[in-house]
Amino acid sequence: MGPEGKKLLNIVILGLGFMFMFTAFQTCGNIEQTIIKSFNSSEFHGSGYTSMAIIYGVFSASNLMAPSVVTVIGPQLSMFVSGLIY
Question: What domain of life (predicted)?
């Protein structure tokens, strides 16, 4: 396998990893409201929609700052740090 083939293989593996990670995340997010409804007691009144709104708000703010962070610390280190944080 040549260098171009290795680059393509790395891109495909990275894409599959993100696909599986976000598939699991979306599945959990979609059933969250149902689980919270079945768990509701007199002491707990939460909403899965509120928590999802907070998560997506933080994602939006992070996406606005991401290009600056990548420029300052570089793409390799920023991917490593973001993987740890996520």
Answer: Eukaryota
Q: Give how many domains the chain has, as a whole number.
A: 1
- The whole domain housing 50 covers 3-85
Buried b (16+ CB within 10 A) or exposed e, 50-82: eeeeeeeeeeeeeeeeeeeeeeeeeeeebeeee
pLDDT in tens, 22-72: 898 888 878 887 887 777 666 767 777 788 888 889 989 989 999 999 999
Pair of tokens at residue 7: 């680059």
Question: Rounded to whole angstroms, how far apart are CA atoms 3 and 13?
Answer: 15
Cα distance between residue 33 and residue 70, in whole Å: 35
Cα-Cα end-to-end distance for the chain: 32
CA dihedral 22, 23, 25, 28 (to 10 degrees): 170
